[in-house]
Amino acid sequence: MAQAASDELIYDWNEVGRRGRLIPKNVTFFDETLRDGLQNPSVVDPSIEDKLEILHLMDDLGIQNADIGLPGSSPRAFDDVLRMCREIVDCKLAIRPACAGRTVVSDITPMIDIAQRTGLPVEVYAFIGSSPIRQLAEAWDLDTMVKRSAEAIDVAVKAGLPVAYVTEDTTRSRPEVLATLFKVALDHGASRLCLSDTVGHATPDGVRNLIAFTQSIVAGAGAKVGIDWHGHNDRGLALENAVWALEFGADRVHGTALGIGERVGNAQMELILLNMKLLGLLEDQDLTKLLAYCETVARAVGWDVPINYPLVGRDAFRTATGVHAAAIAKAQAKGDAWLADRIYSGVPAGMFGRHQEICIGYMSGASNVTAWLAERGYASDKRVVDAILAAAKLEHHILSDDEVRAILEREGVTRA
Predict the structure, then answer these.
(1) Taking Cα atoms as reference points, which of 11, 44, 41, 5 lies closest to residue 298?
(2) What range does the domain containing 324 cover?
(3) Rg for the chain (alpha carbons), in Å?
């Protein structure tokens, strides 16, 4: 449908008095599913075959960067990272790999080894805890943190690898400590600074303040580096904070499929992409494989997707309510797929590889039954519709397809 026509049919209060949402076109997305996502205590480490499939789906979705593991943590982790890097080379994937490691030289050298074996400039995400609470637990002083950070960055930069310097628990760290660490990272050649809401502490105000502070440090140093936002969901704000981070000046945000990650998880990558698409940022990006991406990850790690989860959940685009179904059915009868996909959904299902589904239940009307029959190629008349509807009203649940077909069989109805 033409933009002018869609504007006439949907009045968008999101745009009234909008302050600008100056999200630049060159923002990038960093997928942490195969690193931070696998630190969730309830998931299993996927097979390498599953990891490769997930990597390909990330690439299909246009996700630019992915953290594919901690190769210094175990021989299996090293082998899996090496295999994924070779897959990127062999299949000419556009996605760029990154690896995480502590600001310890022994964590950085495996990344250098993998980069040399594959010819890929693996991006090094070197992290160190920076908050007072972490310093107390680790018995670190600032001089120790500076020394470790500089040594790790130097090793990676000398090997020709790009470095993102990650301050863990940035959102609870003191400004003078961050200023010192950031300046050391910039002086030693880091190309990105990653701000981490490691324990999900931040609110949007915190995101704004921290990014503005970081921008001032970068500007004062005369440097040109990228700023990452990495957020967890302990307050339920990870998705919102990720969107705000882009508006406030971060040019790369992190997320994981289905938000899996430590404790309650991370910002949900598929919902970041969904919202960016609906905000008009990813107009030319095909996101119809988002469902496959989420379902593949869920299967690979043993994750149960909540039935009401946006986009992916079983009920995301299902309705059994008579008034809602009637409106969708009327739009479908007009032959207007655009209208049918939006009349009772703020997220167009077809844009993301799904479709509207009309079910039959105790709150349904004749429109539900008629639409269900038509979609599956059954002829309908009032007798059949009334029989199905009467059965539905007696139940305490939505009728399954098998239950409806049993009624049809009893009524002697076959496909047209």
Answers:
(1) 44
(2) 318-410
(3) 25
Last residue of a domain, one of 242, 269, 301: 301
Question: According to the model, what pLDDT value does residue 313 have?
Answer: 96
Q: Determine the Cα–Cα distance for residues 347 and 291; give it in Å rounded to an integer.
A: 14
Whole-structure pTM value: 0.92
Is the pLDDT confidence value at 21 over 60?
A: no
- CATH number of domain containing 133: 3.20.20.70
Rounded to whole angstroms, how far apart are CA atoms 363 and 256? Answer: 36
CB within 8 A of 198, min separation 6: which ones? 168, 169, 170, 171, 230, 232
Can you give the pLDDT at residue 380?
82
CB count, 10 Å around CB of 401? 11
The per-residue pLDDT for range 339-348, each reduced to its tens digit, is: 989 998 999 9
Residues 165 and 272 grouped into a single domain: yes
pLDDT (0 to 100) of residue 5? 57
SS (H, E, C) the chain: CCHHHHHHHCCCHHHCCCCCCCCCCCCEEEECCCCCHHHCCCCCCCCHHHHHHHHHHHHHCCCCEEECCCCCCCHHHHHHHHHHHHHHHHCCCCCEEEEEEECCHHHHHHHHHHHHHHCCCCEEEEEEECCHHHHHHHCCCHHHHHHHHHHHHHHHHHCCCCEEEEEECHHHCCHHHHHHHHHHHHHCCCCEEEEEECCCCCCHHHHHHHHHHHHHHHHHCCCCCEEEEEEECCCCCHHHHHHHHHHHCCCEEEEEHHHCCCCCCECEHHHHHHHHHHCCCCCCCCCCCHHHHHHHHHHHHCCCCCCCCCCCCCCCCEECCHHHHHHHHHHHHCCCHHHHCCCCCCCCHHHHCCCCEECCCCCCCHHHHHHHHHHCCECCCHHHHHHHHHHHHCCCCCCCHHHHHHHHHHCCCCEC
